[in-house]
Amino acid sequence: MSNEIKAENKMGNTPMLRLILSMSLPAMFSMTIMAMYNVVDSIFIGNYDQAGLTAISLAYPLQLFLIAASVGTAIGVNSLVSRKLGEKDFEMANSAATHGLVTCLFTYAVFLLLGLFAVRPFMSLFTADAHTADCGVQYLTIVLCFSGFSTVQVMIEKTLQATGNMIYPMLFQLLGAVVNIIFDPLLIFGIGFFPECGVAGAAIATVFGQFCGMVFAVLVLFRKNHEVTVSFKGFKLNKMILKNIYSVGLPSIIMQSIGAVMMLGLNSIFMAAGSAVSVTVFGIYFKLQSFVFMPCFGLNQGVMPVIGYNYGARNKARVYSALKCGIIIALVIMSAGVLVMWLIPEQLISMFGGGQELMEVGVPAFRTVSLCFLPAAAGILFTTLFQAVGKGVRSLLMSVCRQLVILLPVALLLSVTGGVGAVWFAFPIAEIGSLLLAIGFFLNLVKGDFKKLS
């Protein structure tokens, strides 16, 4: 009981800014490390083989579907566990955590089949170059067929974060990132007694890092005491719990999958315009922007359980306070990102081994797209709010609006009327439109559900 009181005091009574920073900083740090090893992959591959860099840019949308399924389901578990802890329903919180690990089997089965049968047809849709296609097939086959490691790790991370424990999830991610960064150059270039595996080496390093992180996470989950207990003794699937998990998780999966659809659409627009270099630039940007967005997603991991707990405890003032603090911190992070993209775009692009053509397309693209960072700061936190209070569909609608309803049609229109260089302006336009929708959803909550809170 003392641990339960401690958790209640932490998320129910600690001064908000101090609480959010204490819960978010570990996740922000670990997410930044994750961004680093995603970028390191591309840097090493770009300096090894430019065709390989193009290949993983084309392959990345399918990898995003995997991330979306794993993280989206885990967000549904996180939301349910944190709300049940706030309501003091500890038995339901434990059952939700156990169901979360079972869902990992469903997710892995889907992506194992994709890795075995769908990878080559997928790559053939976007390139006729045999070498580029082979690089993408090698990378995706390894990553998808061994995706169970990352799926389990992510689920345990989100489950522990729902209890307010942010340190162990940070350590899981940190271990996986460090292992990946160490083995990337060894396996890509064949250093020492390691074989030269090229693009496949990057995939092997990634999977091995995920395996190490998963083993660490499983040991911590079952050998340490936590606010939730996972036990399969007498376990039976509960349809109501699965419904609660996926009521938030499914919209989150779709929401994050939309990012993959957006990438597929933009790659198609660039290829139709005869600008393969824009595909590479977009792939580089998408990896680099993770240094800006990943800390904000780490911030979300600290803010979501705070909002969920206080919403379950019916404390409206602390729900508002958490949202306000989160938006301010996100604006600071995003402002730093805009400055970097405007001041040193040449240095960023040169890390990937590209030539003058890549620089000519990439520098103005980076500066234009970065204009979307500031409205995105508030939009991301509103998304977190909606997920934390069980309104995941609103987050989904925001994402659909931003990345499909606005971005792709505007990008297509700009490519026709202003050329390929104008396509990048679709990003800030879409982000502003999504933020306006989020504000409308928030005002609806203020006038509706939030009136019931004390």
Tell me about this structure.
- This protein is mostly helical and 454 residues long.
- The chain has one domain (2-452).
- Helices cover 83% and strands 0% of the residues.
- The protein contains 18 helices and no strands.
- It starts with a helix and ends in a 7-residue tail after the last helix.
- Residues 1-7 have low confidence and may be disordered.
Protein topology:
Elements: H1 2-13, H2 16-48, H3 50-86, H4 90-117, H5 119-124, H6 130-145, H7 148-161, H8 167-189, H9 199-223, H10 239-272, H11 276-288, H12 290-312, H13 316-343, H14 345-350, H15 356-369, H16 373-388, H17 392-417, H18 426-447
Helix pairs in contact: 2-3, 2-8, 2-12, 3-4, 3-6, 3-7, 3-10, 3-11, 3-12, 4-6, 4-7, 6-9, 7-8, 7-9, 8-9, 10-11, 10-17, 11-15, 12-13, 12-16, 13-16, 16-17, 16-18, 17-18
Distance between the termini: 25 Å
Shape: globular
Number of strands: 0
In what range is the share of β-strand residues?
A: under 5%
Helix content: over 70%
Number of self-contained structural domains: 1
By DSSP (H or I, 4+ residues per run), the number of helices equals 18
SSE arrangement, N to C:
HHHHHHHHHHHHHHHHHH
- Overall mean pLDDT: 89
Q: What integer value in Å does the Rg equal?
A: 21 Å
Please summarize the sheet with the most strands.
none
| Poorly predicted ranges | 1-7
Specify the structural class.
Answer: mainly alpha
